[in-house]
Amino acid sequence: MDQIVTIRDVKVVFEGAVILKDINFDIARGEFIYLLGTTGSGKSSLLRLLYADLYPTEGVVRVNNFQVNELDKKDIPFLRRSVGVIFQDFELLTDRSVEENLLFVMKATGWSNQQKMNNKVDELLEKVNLPRLTKDKMPHQLSGGEQQRVAIARALVNDPDLIIADEPTGNLDPKVSRAILDLFKEINESGTSIIMATHQHSFLRVNPERALICEGGNIKDISKEQVQQKLDLT
Length: 234
Ligand SMILES: Nc1ncnc2c1ncn2[C@@H]1O[C@H](COP(=O)(O)OP(=O)(O)OP(=O)(O)O)[C@@H](O)[C@H]1O
Prior knowledge:
Layout: E1 3-14, E2 17-28, E3 32-36, H1 43-50, E4 58-63, E5 66-67, H2 76-81, E6 83-87, H3 98-108, H4 114-127, H5 144-155, E7 162-166, H6 174-189, E8 193-197, H7 202-206, E9 210-215, E10 218-222, H8 224-228
Parallel strand pairs: 3-8, 3-9, 6-7, 7-8
Antiparallel strand pairs: 1-2, 1-4, 4-5, 9-10
Helix pairs in contact: 4-5
């Protein structure tokens, strides 16, 4: 099977403390995976490995044909163009409009045709179910859910093959969180692989998918079928 992520014998050590060890898993192209685990269990560290924000102490990290554990600093932008990263706190540029936030990433990643950029902004807003007029708003004029939709639009600028989402609904109320989960589902159904760290176990009931559980430095790999059989995940 075609794998978008391959992790082999990965170990992460911070200041002498082993955070992750003997980590092995693959993500197939098109798969949706949850990353679960208590606070401090290593979820963010595991995700950071995937976009070269953290290098493993040992082991192999391959993402979309990039050998990330050996990636030269100058090649990191190429990896990051093929993945989209989404955080809990949105991380939008607060002094720029929604449109400027999207254009900023486009220009930084080599876009230059103004008409194509304008069209892409409209296409992205439609994709994340935001009205076109949203583009003139400043982030502080938007609700948390709307800001997260803009952050998702920004992550989709270069049609990534993989979305890496670290607790994307952590700051949102349950109803808005469900709507954001539905959006991730739609994005996944259009072919993009997704790995999402979350504390919201209820997501597994509404959208059962494979789950990796971080605990004690290791990973428990629960297949989609096992999740569907409503295994006890705690
Ligand atoms: N840069 C760092 N230097 C030292 N220790 C770190 C660093 N980053 C993370 N850690 C430690 O590594 C462990 C795992 O942290 P990580 O943020 O990956 O966990 P997490 O599962 O994402 O937690 P949360 O659910 O709270 O986001 C924690 O004990 C944390 O204190």
